[in-house]
């Protein structure tokens, strides 16, 4: 996915220090870095600190940092990385359709030797390594290392405790409790679920519903091509029909089809909706932004969208690979991992000390439980190039009731099956 659309592109060039040898013909005193995290997000906060530490440990080198939009990189990376404008290091989306495709096209650097040398393979659990390694067909889970994730993420249920208390509702830890709560709110004239239908959030909700009827074998068949996928099986059918039913019952506004992820998150933070089903990447912003009501979060029941976070990758044409590797090492260090956790992110390196904010303890522990129990199901748009737009469009049709669930599932099946023929699996 994965997953989120942040602020529109802006460029900031930060003077930072560094030493270390550059490689290639680029300026050995400049590390060109791109990422798409908002400055107030957990990753944005942690990586700003990583840049400062890079400055302290690499005198004389500067970081030319450019903040990009998630969808901007999603759509243009193959073209940019195949040009002379490629950065030395960038945050990139993990999965077969993104990092896997670029690795297959020869646009990313194989960093397997450095991963072993620097011990990153020891820091990342096998579950977190899945999205960093790709085989010759660009399929994740085995083969060479083409990136390093330094945070983790997963989808959960956020809820407004005050609004739940007003309706006499308990926290929604089961599908039954969730749907009962939404029915109560709808009956009181309140649209219960904040949804962003023009970007990733809506199709993640559809996938979450589908996952309630899925297991690891189902996920592997869909995500890793280990067996035949039936888009009209019990899981997909339940997901699509239940989502359509939620729209029909008023749990999801038909206007949500035109709402983006940022507007969705803001509406929840402003107390306009009692429930938001989305990713842990919102957590830090919720902690910082919500002042007028009490809120909480609970894990999605069963398997859930989630994985290691998006990765640092080094383009094949990068001019300063050594500096890029040094920067990755800093982001994997305990101080930066702790900084990320305190800002509301899910670290990949556990800390010996508890976080200052009690809610962050639950955030990390919930992820550890999901990972240990093998309940991370990746993201719905990963299996095929261009699949993100297909999922957005298909789910919008459920929101507007312009297509039946079976038609939407046909729409999801076609590009998946076409891609499968090209993968050689």
TrEMBL record:
Its keywords, alphabetically, are:
Signal
Matching entries from InterPro entries are given as: Bact_solute-bd_prot1, SBP
Q: From the UniProt annotation, give the residues forming the signal peptide.
A: 1-17
Pfam families to which the protein is assigned, alphabetical: SBP_bac_1
Q: Does the keyword Signal apply?
A: yes
Q: What is this protein called?
A: Raffinose/stachyose/melibiose transport system substrate-binding protein
Source lineage: Bacteria, Bacillati, Actinomycetota, Actinomycetes, Pseudonocardiales
